[in-house]
Design goal:
The chain is mainly alpha-helical. Helices cover 34% and strands 3% of the residues. Helix 1 packs across helix 3 and helix 2 crosses helix 3. It is globular and about 35 Å long. The structure holds a DNA duplex.
Length: 117
Amino acid sequence: MVYERVYELVRLIPKGKVLTYGMISRKLEGRLSAQAVGWALRALPSKDGLYDSDNVPWHRVINASGGISTTGKATSDNADTGEVQKKLLRKEGIKLNEEGKVDLDVYLWTDFYGCDL
DNA sequence: ACAGTGACAACAT
DNA sequence: TATGTTGCCACTG
């Protein structure tokens, strides 16, 4: 399953850093569109074995503007994901600006392109 | 096999 | 600056 590549990548994000969907997409070199990266996380089970919300820091993945995309459209097992994500980010020391966005200049995981997978 | 369904991004008004 | 449009592609039933 291609989604698992995304999960593996997300698992490598250091605490206190974030990545954007587009960056992950580019890292996977066309295997997956930015949108598909989002779908992968959307499909991430809350607790179901190898890849779940316990060992995949999905909250460190945000959109190109540094914002949270979950939009409250969540499924039954992930209701208020947007708020949860903000909380988790703050817990890791990531501060959000007035618009509730992450400051990419500060928290973006720039070494990402140097890491291999 | 087929259609519906999405946590996005880049570009064009 | 703010919307609209288009390309995107794996997963599920």
